[in-house]
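Quick check before the chapter quiz. The format below is the same one you will see on the exam, so make sure you can read both the input and the output lines.
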Amino acid sequence: MTETKQGPAETLDSGGAPSGEIPKRRRPVAAAPAPIEAGEPPGEGEAARPVESSDVVYGVGAPEPDEFLDPAGALDRRAALDPKGGGDRDRKGGLDPEGAGEPARAVPSAADRGPVGRPGGASAFDGQEAAGILEQARVSVDPELRRAVGSLPGSMRRVARYHFGWEDADGTPVAGKAGKAIRPALVLAAVAALGGRESVAVRAAAAVELVHNFTLLHDDVMDRDATRRHRATAWTVFGIPDAILAGDALQALAQRLLAEDPHPASAAASARLASCVVELCAGQHTDTEMEGRRPEDVTLDEVLAMAEAKTGALLGCACALGALYAGADDKDVEALDAFGREAGLAFQLIDDVIGIWGDPSRTGKPAGADLMVRKKSLPVVAALASGTPEAVELAELYGLPYEEGDLERTALVVERAGGRDWAQSQAADRMARATHELSRAVPEPASAGGLLALAEFVTRRSS
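Here is the expected output.
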């Protein structure tokens, strides 16, 4: 998961991102959205509907009391955790997660699956289980993160501590500005789901969080994002060179944590995390390359592949590292990687929705910031591919620099062309696939409960 951009002060490279194809598994792509039926979109002259707390939205967000939604009426759009041989089905249209050579596995339709299975037969979701898991992950991983960051030289340490939300720019300690710890929580929850002890994977969880924050530091620079977590980004405070170098250092710290970890899975985890970083960089390169293309020259396949590389890859890696530390076999490692990737795509789809229609008071980002910079986000590309008159209008708007006052019009055009509905429908489909992959590795709902709670958390929010 863009804020108001400042004009570039200097030319940046892509942070060392390699060029070329994104290393990825191909995923089936839904057809471009059909035109919205009359009466569904906002009427002429009406503002595009913002994301409300009453919406059923799939995405990522903080555990705020009013944010979690009653799943009634939405459960038919989510996957079932099928404990009865779900891994034996064929998945339509997808590659098998072990590679090539086996038949593709089918994902049952939402209607066939019914409500998501929960321990004890409950299906309601209030976010409290996930909130507890995230808090415990922060408590477990924070000391390891602070030790690692504390080993950095002075200037890089200062930037990193500010970026993590531990200090203000002047070094004054602060509280309450850190991230959600979703990725380390996935590592620890995956270990627990497969019968391992979470404590053995704390270093691996910290390594994943360091890599995540390396990507955020670089992404903020490349996108010229001015705010993150309701305050100024590191590069706007300390300058571009220091922010880039701090990000580089965090990635190195991640690899050092794994290299020094005596656990027998640490070598495999280090190799997997390094491959993930290459995939992340390739995804970022593709993202920046697409920004220079005409709107009509960017396809849904390309944008979904880019989103998997930039967002899905690290969530998948987090789950896979947890499986490795639990001693899982290759099949279960790959199934949990696929689970995280699909959840990550759902994450990105709704992050893009919120980037256009989100409430700034909840997101900490200006409304419509992605549209201001003509970002080719998933709802936008879906709208452009819809074949509607609004698609033509949107291509014309995106071919021109942003002008004061056209934000509301652009958001409305994207919505009327079906971009918003398509993104939310795709997010639901990706979550169906994610929970199916989870059932292959962890067929017992009681064991899968933590991962399922996190998946529900990262795919249900209004900000």
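If your answer matched, good. The longest strand covers residues 227-228.
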